[in-house]
Amino acid sequence: MNVLVIGGGNMGMTYAAAIATSNFLTDGSLMIFDKSEEKLNELRSKGLFDVHDQLATCLPKADVVLIAVKPVHAPGLMAEMKPMVSDEQLFVSIMAGVTIKTIRKGLGVGKVVRAMPNLPALVGLGMTSFTASEQVSRLELAAIERLLDTTGRSIMLPSESKIDASTGISGSGPAYIFYFMQALMDAATKMGFLEADARLLVSQTFAGAVELFNSSALSPEDWMAKVASKGGTTRAALDSMDGNNVNALIQEAAYAAFRRAEELGKQSEGKEVSHA
Ligand SMILES: NC(=O)C1=CN([C@@H]2O[C@H](COP(=O)(O)OP(=O)(O)OC[C@H]3O[C@@H](n4cnc5c(N)ncnc54)[C@H](OP(=O)(O)O)[C@@H]3O)[C@@H](O)[C@H]2O)C=CC1
Ligand SMILES: O=C(O)[C@@H]1CCC=N1
Q: Does one domain contain both 47 and 128?
């Protein structure tokens, strides 16, 4: 199988490197295409893949094409790709808010997988959700799942609406965690800790809590109860968060991302977006 990654930015480079260093490709080649000379030099210096600066030299040879450019570049890229693609090829897009319908129409093809990864893919701990057009076979889906899993874990979802929902949870989710980390670091700094110490206190606390959570089937609420003693410090903090409706506010934020993903999808299809 020949795989082509289009766009060698954060995500494209991450996927290409993960595929290259995994045992995903037992035969065929891994190609990567970008337009910027600086990016091309960086890609070449890795020595991991076959780097192309022309679509014509790589696109027709690809069995699977992973599209990893920014959504704003999608229309121009698809117009350039269209004369060189065939219905046998399978297209995997990780572009946020670009629907399968838009890609099928833009490229004039049938087999499209839409995936929503997240940034921890950079360190092999990504969470990717994906769904596919009905033209993609079970065998092809299994291969795509293995490809996505080179950057962490993946989950297949039944619809694009669920992809939009997962964008509000796992796609944008790392930023919510960083938000919480920043708030705790700000508190630590106010309490007089040096920034390096604040960073250690916060990062080890997050890492330890996640490790604990993954060590059993207990819910976050079960774990909260284990940390909090009656009348103790944790109860004081949790009561403060409950009093300020923090749970509901976090849910509202996740829904804001979900709604924005839906809006972007509609815009990619040229539909009006109502802000009612
Ligand atoms: N970052 C994240 O957490 C997540 C990102 N995504 C999605 O991943 C996609 C890629 O994001 P990211 O890697 O951060 O973006 P980057 O801007 O880092 O990478 C995109 C790359 O594609 C290049 N490019 C632009 N147009 C073309 C073209 N026509 N042909 C070839 N290459 C082109 C860009 O070059 P140049 O810089 O010169 O424009 C750049 O090198 C986006 O669609 C985003 O929605 C999805 C989930 C999470
Ligand atoms: O913010 C965004 O639009 C993209 C999608 C999920 C993460 N980053």
A: yes
